[in-house]
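Exercise 7.
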Amino acid sequence: MNRNSFASILQEHFTMNLPEYLATLRQMVEINSFTAYAPGVNELGQLTAKLFAKLGFEAEFVQSAISRYGQHLVLTRNGRTNKTIGLVSHLDTVFPAEEEERNDFHWREAGERIYGPGTVDIKGGTVLIYMMLDALSRYAPEHFEAINWVILIDAAEEAEAEDFGQLCIDRLEGLNTLACLIFEGGSKVDDTYQIVVARKGMAVFQVKTEGRSSHAGSYHANGANALVQMAHTILKLAAMTDYSRDVTVNVGTVRGGVVTNRVPHEAEAWLEMRTFKPDVYMETIDKVLAQNGDVDVVSSADGYSCSVVVDLYRKTPPWDRNEATDHLFAVWRQAGEALGFTILPEERGGLSDGNHFWQRIPSLDGLGPSGGNAHCSERSEDGSKDQEFVLVSSFVPKATLNTMAVLQLIGAFDESA
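Solution. The predicted structure, written as tokens, is:
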């Protein structure tokens, strides 16, 4: 197979059939698949299963471990060899139907932008998977049919339900798995593309402070103010943010107190910490947990002390730079150079499914189309707020890049030609 001539065939095919692919994306976007709305998630799963059935994929639905969420979708097509490639996307979005309606957030074409829930995160990525496999089945059938393809589509990625990561490990781990490719949106500026090679880890904590109530006017000195203690603790936690080490500690919610004429006796906060390096990740977890029992506020009357309790609620370890991911990135970079693209590595602060399995399966991320404003449904007249969108111009080059890189990965090209 000649590299240059095949790239031209792909580009022509993707350009000619792009309206059909975008029509499929519109069908997906018009289904509300908010994580907590299982009927919509499952409806999108059924539509996606029918789409890939055209290419010979068999569908399996696996209920999320959290019963209120929908069903994960596993699509498989067995090949003639023992080589396996996994492809990952997700069904859910972060937008409840009432939010979409309130903000008039729906499929909307504006120049080269298409607005709508999930256009870039991540329904556009699912369509890009289909584009790649559709082209391979038509123009490189011998290679398409040689590979065991496993498409895994998460029902609850936005809620960080961790069972999907184990599902990916169960279906993909092994010496014959060449790669797991994740189709979260990827950055594009002109002919420069960023491919995700690392992601921050996240740890979520609950902080509780307890004090002693008293009358805020007559007996204020008797009180031990749990909200004031929480404020002291929050300042210590926020001070752990260290941009030079890529550590962020974000206190996201706080509640406490009942009425203003009562010294509050309890308060609660939730926070998350994120960072890239595993050693820094564990070090910062220990620093946050060390706030247990670190008390500043006591009653002026008798020294009654507030209490501070910090609990680690959830851990999602970092996806660190590693040899297996860097090998895949080198393949994509070489494929991009042959197409006249510049491919750069990106270490991204947000999480993806890849955080849960990169240590077990060679993984690469950010392979979806480009866009912006993911997770945003609002827009304003002055343009300071705008809705999620995908760039139409990113589909053809990104599909071409991914297809050529996969072919290079499996050794399809005659390098002497």
